[in-house]
Amino acid sequence: MTDKTAILPEGANPMGPYSPGIVSGGFLFVSGQVGRGPDGAIGSTIEEQTRYTLENMRGILHAAGCDFKDVVKANVYITKPEYFAVFNPIYMEYFPEPRPARATVIAALVDEKFLIEIEAIAKLP
Prior knowledge:
The chain is of the alpha+beta class. It has two helices and six strands; from the N terminus they run βββαβαββ. The protein has a single domain (5-123), classed as CATH 3.30.1330.40.
């Protein structure tokens, strides 16, 4: 039997059959978050979607008692290489030093309206 607890922040509405976060083994595993705002609207620019994505992640982190300082690994998926230069400074605003290990991949996302998706692993404090 494993220790596994779903994290569902208040107001969260997953778009599929998954948990926004899972706590297990002293870590929080955050499902991929996308650029959908609190009203459900999809951001129209990479800047807006990056901020929405990270704010969605913040809600899951806080629901588990964590913050961006606790993130040890992040995987970032963007749909165009030119988005990297815009996304990266915004990402740096959220993640304090030492920043987590990270992979950034150019990828097609499940809905062509989404420009970015970020998943993460955080160590519980």
